[in-house]
Amino acid sequence: MAQTRPMEARTGRKNQRYGDRGERLVAGVVPLSADRTKVMMVESNSRRGGWVLPKGGWEMDEGTAEDAACREAWEEAGIVCRVQLDLGHIQEPRDPAHTTPEAPKALYQFYEVSVEKEEPQWPEMHKRGRQWLSYIDAATALAERPELLEALNRSSIVR
Predict the structure, then answer these.
(1) CA 36/CA 8 separation, integer angstroms
(2) d(Cα 13, Cα 154) in Å, to the nearest integer?
């Protein structure tokens, strides 16, 4: 029987997990094409015209960061994915002077995933586009987001 996925994205931070030092725990994916020559990126909510990797908060009701990462891939990119590789933790490089209690520093946990299915409709399709990019185009798009570029560079994408 096919699994039904919710068509509503989670919002807010009331169920957000935080680490021992108060950092927001964020899970994300580096979704690669079958031949590993392309990565799927999604439009940024905060930077008009910007492209980022699917990622978001690991919530209290999710057993693992892997679960959270795959949920974010579904909500933001409309993909069903399978984790292939744990890319490890990446500290957010933002200067502590630019953090607030509402926007603390984040600790990212990224996974390289294979895309099993691209759905024609997904929860955030009306506010985020998605596209496949080569390594060079993705790296250029992520130049101002060193934590996301680091995740891309840890993946097995063909350069």
Answers:
(1) 30
(2) 28
Only one residue has tokens 């994915």, namely: 81
159 contacts 118 by C-beta, under 8 angstroms = no
CA–CA separation, 57 vs 20, rounded Å?
15
Check: CB of residue 28 under 8 Å from CB of residue 55. Answer: yes
Per-position DSSP letters for the chain, written without gaps between them: -PPP--SS---SSTTB-B-TTSPEEEEEEEEE-TTSS-EEEEE-SSSTT-EE--EEEPBTT-SSHHHHHHHHHHHHH-EEEEEEEEEEEEE----GGG--SSS--EEEEEEEEEEEEE-S--TTTTT--EEEE-HHHHHHHTTT-HHHHHHHHHS----
Residue carrying structure tokens 């169920």:
15
Say which residue the tokens 């496949």 belong to. 132
pLDDT digits 0-9 by tens, 36-54? 999 999 999 887 789 999 9
- CA atoms of 73 and 82, how far apart (whole Å): 10
pTM of the model as a whole: 0.90
